[in-house]
Amino acid sequence: MNNILVPIGTSPDASKTLQYAIDFASNFGAQVFVMEVFSVSSAAASLANVEEKIAKSSKEHIKEIIASVNTKNVEIKIATYNGDMVDGLNDIDKELGIDLIIIASKSNDIQEELYLGNTSGRIVKQTNIPTLIVPKEIEFKPIKNIMTAFGSGILKRNRVLNPLISIKDKFRSEVNLLLVKRPGYSEDDLKVNTALLDLSKQLIISENANTYLGVLEYYQNQHPDLICVFRRKRGFFKKLWEKNTIPKSEFFVPIPVLILSVKKD
Q: In the beta sheet, which residues pair with residue 246?
């Protein structure tokens, strides 16, 4: 794990997310790219170098946030992008090869309605880059217990497991698998990828209406340090694909969630 990207928005808690990312990256010797996206139309950009001025302002904003954290000798680079957030992430990924995006959930407060807002929801649903969602204000701690949940054990490419393998190897984590048998499951869904099995200590089978209900049930019983799921259109966020925001009423756990990328299923 070499390149970690942290999109920075206007949240007053952005420095806390960045600190978590730095603490995480320091364990891997990875560099952190701090990214801010702005949008200036071509018409506005022609007026007295508006785009250049906004880009400069964005960089100053990022520098202020970086100055407020303990960098722990982690190499930090600044990236600004004029345009759509998802396009910017994909462009940077093509140029640099991003191993992981780290973003924050909306808040730890269960009273707040949303788990992911529009921007973070779009990152999760519209990119194929592995993403770690961390609750706001959470402090980094070594990840010792990982629960990996899925409704189908089929993986077309073993390399999608690389972020999970890196975390497991670095922290000597224990990985437990949760196979959720959903209504309409096929026998093929019950065939678990051998590379995934090789990572794990045990396989638990649960029957639930969908994968994230299985996750919530498991979390309440086992209290893992990290939940790992797969980005599939027919998977974890199945009933949420049509909207970018994700309400806490539909999914909320107060620990980091790692989302691995499966391009097609």
A: 116
Under 8 Å between Cβ of 91 and 122: no
First vs last C-alpha separation in the chain: 25
- CA–CA separation, 123 and 129 (whole Å): 9
Distance CA 256, CA 234 (A): 22
Residue 26 vs residue 38, higher pLDDT: 26
Q: For residue 2, what are its two tokens?
A: 């070499």
Helix (H, G, I), strand (E, B) or coil at 20: helix
Task: Identify the CA nearest to 34 among candidates 42, 149, 68.
Answer: 68
- In the numeric block, which tokens belong to residue 111? 């009273």
Distance CA 104, CA 25 (A): 16
Name the pairing type of β-strands 226-231 and 100-104: unpaired
DSSP state string for 72-118? TT--EEEEEEES-HHHHHHHHHHHH--SEEEEE-S-S-TTSSEEE-H
Report how far residue 258's alpha carbon sits from residue 253's, in angstroms, rounded to the nearest whole number: 12
Residue 244 reports pLDDT greater than 70:
no
pLDDT over 60 (residue 241):
no
Sheet holding 76-82, edge to edge: 76-82, 31-38, 3-7, 100-104, 131-134, 257-261, 226-231, 145-150, 174-181, 202-207
CA–CA gap between residue 103 and residue 20 (Å, rounded): 10
User: Where would I find the H helices in the chain?
Assistant: 14-26, 42-45, 50-67, 85-96, 118-126, 162-171, 194-199, 211-222
C-alpha dihedral sign at 49, 53, 59, 62: negative
Stated pTM of the model: 0.83
